[in-house]
Amino acid sequence: MWLFEDELPEGRFCHTCLQYMPWDCFHMHRDGFHINDRDNRCKTCVNDDLSIRRRLKRENPVPADGRCMTCRNKTKLVLDHDHDDLTFKGYVCQKCNLRGRTSWRIYSK
After folding, report:
1. DSSP labels for 33-92?
2. So what's the pLDDT on residue 1?
3. pLDDT value at residue 77
4. Biggest alpha carbon–alpha carbon distance for the chain
5. How far apart are CA 76 and CA 58, in angstroms?
6. What is the CATH number of domain 61-109?
7. Contact of 38 with 57, CB cutoff 8 Å
8. Rounded to an integer, what distance in angstroms lies between the CA atom of residue 22 and that of residue 60?
9. Would you state the pLDDT for residue 4?
10. What angle do CA 70, 67, 63 make, to 5 degrees?
11. C-alpha–C-alpha distance, residues 103 and 64, integer Å
12. What is the pLDDT of residue 108?
């Protein structure tokens, strides 16, 4: 029995689909924070997530005023979406997105 995921001999588990896969099914990273310098999601799950975000961006254009829907600062905006039901929540600044300050109540269409 292995104690740590990085001790598994030929691959790892994807954190999204929970499937055990060989190392070449995971994208490389060079930041030093990933096990064996690999992403924690398999390439298929990463590509699925990118497709979802592209679709959400097509269906929901960035607001013309360029303001964060949470703090109202005018800055570069990122797409905020629900990771469970894959629905669009709004556009927020990176700071609010990372702090988790977003709430469905403050968004207005």
Report:
1. -SGGGEEEEEHHHHHHHHHHHHHHHHHSPPPTT-B-TTT--BS-EEEEE-TTT--EEEEE
2. 45
3. 92
4. 55
5. 17
6. 3.30.50
7. no
8. 36
9. 59
10. 110
11. 21
12. 46
Length of the chain: 109
Query: ∠ at Cα 60 (55, 62), nearest 5°?
Result: 120
Within 13 Å, how many C-alpha atoms sit on residue 21's CB side?
19
What does the pLDDT profile of the chain (109 residues) look like in tens digits? 445 555 556 888 999 999 999 989 998 876 666 556 788 899 999 999 899 989 999 999 988 898 998 888 888 999 888 777 888 888 999 888 887 654 544 444 4
CA atoms within 13 A on the CB side of 97: 15
DSSP 3-state assignment of 1? Answer: coil
pTM above 0.85, yes or no: no
